[in-house]
Amino acid sequence: MILIAGCAVPLLVNRQNGNDMTVMLATVAFIALVLSIAVLNGVRKSRACVRKLWETFELEVDATHITRRNADTPIATIAFADVTEIIRYPGRGMLMKTSRALQTVEVPEWVENYEQAVEMIRQHCGVQIKTQTERTWHSPIFLVALGLSAWVLFLNIQSKMVTLIVGAALVGLCGWSIWAVNRSPNVSQARKRSLVYAFLIVICLAKMGYAAGLLK
Fold this sequence. Notes:
Layout: H1 2-12, H2 20-56, E1 58-61, E2 65-70, E3 73-79, E4 83-89, E5 93-98, E6 105-108, H3 114-124, E7 129-131, H4 140-155, H5 160-183, H6 189-192, H7 196-212
Parallel strand pairs: 4-7
Antiparallel strand pairs: 1-2, 2-3, 4-5, 5-6
């Protein structure tokens, strides 16, 4: 809520000649401070979450299916007959994909008897296993940096048309994220309860309302 309030400041400040840069720098500094605190807290929680995943992760492979179980995450099961692509990422693990984008199962390298699991999957699945390096633009750090840049740009856009176009794109992206997070079997229940995307949509709509003259 503090972050959302800080992001809304440019919408409420009456900008005069020469004040645009001041407002932008103050907004960026405030967001950076709040995000720094959030990142430190997130790292602490992530370490606890990873430790819990280590302790509860289970992988079951039989002649026709592969099933993944771990704490706070829905059970994910896919049939070998539905697998369309298998990719091994060095240093990460193996990802099994189906025709449905959200229906996937990943076998991390740190799982016990990883090579044995890979060999069993190779024997029961008719899809060839590919090996490739993970792309930079798939990295969470890259996506977060890109998202923050787009967000700061959106808050400081003056053009009405550009504001409406970028705002509509951000609202659509947040809406898709809400759908994807809640449909994905690979996202923990705690993350599904997050309302951050809904808050971002509200701020986008408010900025678009000001740009369109609907809000004063």
